[in-house]
Q: What sequence folds into this?
């Protein structure tokens, strides 16, 4: 399997590189890995026009664990290191959830000089809500107080916390009886590192990349699932007002935050048209 080692705290990151043509980099979300995008990637590769790079964040999937650099700022730097290591030019970046926030972080630090277009799937630039911001995590209207409660539960019973999170992301989880939930919880973590996921959860919710949206000078495609985690106004109001390259919104009916696996055909079709 191909890896590259960043000079940033020596993280060994797994990546997959297939196809030829317009370079596209997929960036997955929290507690997931690059396999999430495979149904979309297969449809795009079949068109024979794209070089697709799909990688795992540090502490996720097949990438190595590490003791440092467990912040959103670092994930933006990892993405920058990957693009440089592969010599990519005029890249199209596609991010889902924390993957989209990774792209916000990249743009905040490095701008859009080497980016052709951006695709964001259900992600706000600021997750915590407060008196001046209501476009964050909407399922429980997450505030700093609730984030602190999250961290308490993560420290006490990570499996239970992860199951609760999946109940917010995929509504079917919320319908499982407690007897079944107890059996399912341990398997949700997969091969990811619990400690690293906990630190990324804290960093993700404490981050504020609203100013990064002002730095977007390339076209944006935003996928809004109607049962997702963030309100449509993230794109229709905030991004439209601040991103300078224009924003196209695709509404995904009857879709949750996990729309990449629920409606891969729609996403692949819209991404191809956007590219």
A:
């Amino acid at each position: 399997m191909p890896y590259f080692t960043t000079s940033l705290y020596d993280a060994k990151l797994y990546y997959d590189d297939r196809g030829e043509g317009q370079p596209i980099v997929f960036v997955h979300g929290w507690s997931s890995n690059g396999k999430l995008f495979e149904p979309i990637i297969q449809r795009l590769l079949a068109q024979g026009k794209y070089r697709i790079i799909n990688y795992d964040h540090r502490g996720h999937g097949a990438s190595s664990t590490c003791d440092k650099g467990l912040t959103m700022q670092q994930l933006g730097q990892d993405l920058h290191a990957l693009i440089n290591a592969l010599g990519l030019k005029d890249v199209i970046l596609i991010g889902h959830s924390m993957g989209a926030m990774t792209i916000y972080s990249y743009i905040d630090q490095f701008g859009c000089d080497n980016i052709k277009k951006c695709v964001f799937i259900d992600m706000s630039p600021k997750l915590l809500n407060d008196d001046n911001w209501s476009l964050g995590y909407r399922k429980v209207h997450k505030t700093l107080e609730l984030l602190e409660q999250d961290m308490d539960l993560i420290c006490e019973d990570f499996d239970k916390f992860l199951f609760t999170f999946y109940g917010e992301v995929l509504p079917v989880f919320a319908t499982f009886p407690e007897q079944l939930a107890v059996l399912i919880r341990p398997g949700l973590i997969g091969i990811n590192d619990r400690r690293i996921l906990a630190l990324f959860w804290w960093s993700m919710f404490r981050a504020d990349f609203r100013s990064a949206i002002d730095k977007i000078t390339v076209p944006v495609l935003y996928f809004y699932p109607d049962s997702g985690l963030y309100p449509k106004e993230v794109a229709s109001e905030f991004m439209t007002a601040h991103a300078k390259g224009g924003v196209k919104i695709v509404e995904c009916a009857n879709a949750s935050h996990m729309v990449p696996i629920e409606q891969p055909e729609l996403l692949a079709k819209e991404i191809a048209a956007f590219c």
Summary: The beta strands are 3-5, 12-19, 22-27, 50-55, 91-96, 115-121, 220-227, 247-256. The radius of gyration is 18 Å. Residues 33 and 56 are 5 Å apart (CA to CA). The chain is about 40% helix and 20% strand.
